[in-house]
Design goal:
The chain is mostly beta strands. It has 3 helices and 12 strands, in the order ββββαβαββββαβββ. Residues 169-174 have low confidence and may be disordered. Bound molecules: fe (iii) ion (FE).
Length: 227
């Protein structure tokens, strides 16, 4: 069985937000799918370990902000590689309240969907939440980010808690050494540089400024190891 076959499935990239009382949280997911059109329903699959899972279970509602293709890696890292148990992820993030009182992320979002959970299915490590739409709006015209674009063009990584996580063996062999972030798995490739962070292609890891940080999770240079 070749699990890489799964990589041929197509996905988008979303910020899933919810609330528990007056606390807000959000996370990145690639698993939003329209389920039915009449009534309009969508589903999302969340890891049981994630705080957002706890919040959706509690409030029975979630929103999905559909990210644009030019969303910076740091924004995806903010929601995807940090836990709301340690930080308030909504600090400094533009958002608006939805019909159910949860937050809807507006930054880098082309559109949003808000749903009230009608049914859920336990699938082991994850739960599939299905919800009827109670809100939906287009915010901006643009190309939505696909999961493939995030990996191939943005060179983003996947946390181990994502349903689509497949352990990757990084190939090496290049003139300049690649360095891997020990926190999130991001691979700094000198051939590519870090365009989001203003680092030109062809910059060796050693020449990165001391205050350069991982474009995904914000870890410092000292948390990188030669790949
Ligand atoms: Fe990182």
């Amino acid at each position: 069985m070749n699990l890489k076959a799964l990589r041929n499935c197509s996905y988008g990239l979303y910020v899933i937000s919810s609330r528990k009382g007056d606390r807000f949280n959000g996370q990145i997911a690639n698993t939003v799918v329209q389920a039915t059109s009449d009534p309009p329903t969508i589903s999302v699959i969340l890891n049981k370990e994630n705080l957002t899972h706890e919040f959706v279970t509690d409030s029975k509602a979630f929103s999905a902000s559909i990210l644009s293709q030019d969303t910076p890696l740091s924004f995806i890292g903010h929601f995807g590689f940090h836990s709301g148990r340690d930080t308030d992820k909504f600090k400094g993030i533009e958002h608006r309240p939805g019909e159910t009182g949860l937050p809807i992320v507006l930054d880098h979002s082309l559109a949003y969907l808000e749903a009230r959970v009608t049914t859920q299915l336990d699938v082991g490590t994850h739960t599939i939440f299905v919800g009827e739409l109670v809100g939906a709006e287009i915010l901006e015209e643009g190309e939505p980010m696909t999961y493939a674009y995030y990996h191939q063009v943005k060179r983003g990584t996947t946390p181990k808690t994502a349903p689509s996580y497949i352990e990757e063996r990084k190939e090496a062999k290049s003139e300049m050494d690649k360095y891997e972030c020990t926190v999130c798995g991001y691979l700094y490739d000198p051939k590519e540089g870090d365009p989001d962070g203003g680092i030109k292609a062809g910059t060796p890891f050693e020449d990165l400024p001391d205050d350069w940080v991982c474009p995904i999770c914000g870890a410092g240079k000292d948390q990188f190891e030669k790949a």
